Amino acid sequence: MNQNRRGSLTVGVLLILLGSWFLAVKLIPGLEDWAEAFAEWPAWIIAFGLLFLVAGIVGGVPDLAVPAAIISGIGGILLYQARSGEWDTWAYAWALIPGFVGVGVLVANLLKGKFKIAIREGGGAIVTSLVLFTIFAGLLYQYVEGPEILEEITVYWPVALILLGVWALIRPFLKSRQKPEL
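The structure corresponding to this sequence follows.
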């Protein structure tokens, strides 16, 4: 079975399972109450993302790790915001989304057995995302909270510089040694 058919089959089974769950919640008395007691709504978003990951592994479509990481990552942000009530953090938390893509690329390539490509392609997006998050969080948080918070935030700037430095050291060793095709 080729990759496109396998991917289509996996997505089809995933949608059927998801639809069956939602139908069961509507038709089986008490199931909705049990589900609500089990988790807050953002946790369901995380679970939906993880379902993509499982479907990708079982269906032999490792590239489903990318949407799985994006969906679960956004669910994680929403879970933090729902529990803390700090919805204004979205002003800089969006900078984590490229990192979620990087995590998905990293996992997908690891599942394919391509370690160097996983680190090179996924790692770059993750490091960039963390640096952007640190910068935007620092700038926006200072603007919202005032200059006195800047002292607390500046603790994280060296971490961003260390991450960039480590990435600059590692990246040349991850370059592909393949000759370009003409």
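The mean pLDDT is 80.
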